[in-house]
């Protein structure tokens, strides 16, 4: 697999978000991905499954010749009834909007759609299972957990942003 920095450097777009997902669990398979783009589109789709111990990526880019960024949400299911959702927002105009990312773990099966995007983007609280973070010049990190699953994430502050996500099992 190509290093992410090399991969995003080859993309000819003003804004993009490359999401790397590392499944560091021993028994959880991530499956049935879905994505919703409020702005932009899927450039490199998420893999259908990410098995325990594997790392994969997907990429979202802005629509060419538009004053819009790369903004949306990605979901994966685990077990029969749980969803991990990752929100990303790399806007076109940093004078109007900031770069944000968020994570949600829920014990419901959720599909990426406008309702989930709006719920996550406009979330103004902080809980163990949901967070939304504004990315500063130094980058930011977040962690959420539900039951025995924990999600850690970091995102760079760049027009070609990299969002790294780790899925872990805890002793809970």
From TrEMBL:
GO CC aspect terms: nematocyst; other organism cell membrane; pore complex
The species this protein was found in: Xenopus tropicalis
Location of this chain's protein in the cell: Nematocyst; Target cell membrane
Chief site of localization: other
Keyword terms of this UniProt record: Membrane, Nematocyst, Target cell membrane, Target membrane
InterPro entries in alphabetical order: Actinoporin_PFT, Anemon_actinoporin-like, Cytolysin/lectin
UniProt entry tagged with the keyword Lyase: no
Protein name: DELTA-thalatoxin-Avl1a-like
One GO BP: pore complex assembly
């Amino acid at each position: 697999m190509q290093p992410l920095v090399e991969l995003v450097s080859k993309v000819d777009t003003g804004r993009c978000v490359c999401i790397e997902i590392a499944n560091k669990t021993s028994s959880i398979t991530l499956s049935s991905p879905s994505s919703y783009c409020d702005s932009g589109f899927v450039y490199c789709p998420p893999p259908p499954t990410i098995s325990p111990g594997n790392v994969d990526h997907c990429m979202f880019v802005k629509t060419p010749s538009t004053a819009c960024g790369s903004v949306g949400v990605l979901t994966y299911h685990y077990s029969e009834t749980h969803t991990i959702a990752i929100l990303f927002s790399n806007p076109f105009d940093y004078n109007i909007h900031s770069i944000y990312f968020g994570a949600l773990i829920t014990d419901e099966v959720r599909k990426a759609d406008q309702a989930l995007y709006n719920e996550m983007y406009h979330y103004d609280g902080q809980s163990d299972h949901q967070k939304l973070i504004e990315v500063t010049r130094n980058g930011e990190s977040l962690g959420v957990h539900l039951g025995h699953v924990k999600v850690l994430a970091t995102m760079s502050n760049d027009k070609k942003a990299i969002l790294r996500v780790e899925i872990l099992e805890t002793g809970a």
